[in-house]
Specification:
Length: 244
Amino acid sequence: MGFLDKLFGKNNTKNTEAPTTTKEVPTPILTEEGLLEQYGGIALEKQLDFGELMGDNNWNVDMTAGTISFCDSLSFPLQVLGTFSHSSETWLWAWANQQSDLPDSIQQNALQLKKYGEDNEIDLLRNPRFDFSTNELHLLGIIATGLCHADAYYIADYGQGAMLLTITDSRIKQVRHDTHDRLRFVFPQLISQFEMNHQNALRSYLRTKGYTVEETKTTLTATKDSDIIQAEFDDLSRLTNLKG
């Protein structure tokens, strides 16, 4: 996946429509794509911060303690979402793995996602096992980071398969680089890796970071203090220009 894998083991037509200030709609997100648009940008920012913190260290998991370590002094509490088999290319949720005997305490995020999937009829989150790919592990990691308010996700590859984890720890928050310039790096990476509505995703990303957003059908302007982001889109909501 390029940018993500490194962290782990112009339309100039002037639009005359009057801009409108967007308002948050407090309704559940009912599709995988919608969840990706909602959480993708900020989740990738968190991955950058986590990648910087853990460095190039190898991982070690202690299921009894419920931790993942990257060196003697760098250990984090974990939540197990599930496992991916390289041979069968299938995903199995932790709550559906009858042979794992995982403690309930480290399956809480997985169960939270299951409930959201059941409540909103999202098969990705409620079906116990299904065909999958390594690329989709990143999609699921992003969604889990957002819905579970985690600080990062991690794909722990153990040879025959990979375990997808979420991590929540104040040390990751402390190294956050919540800067204006990061937007112009992270968002193009996001839309190059996943299929989504670019305008919806950028709007959600900016609002999460505290920007006030005004937009028309093909333009978006976001402000936060003295910082300004301007974007243009084609008729299919694909990004054609981003500056700020």
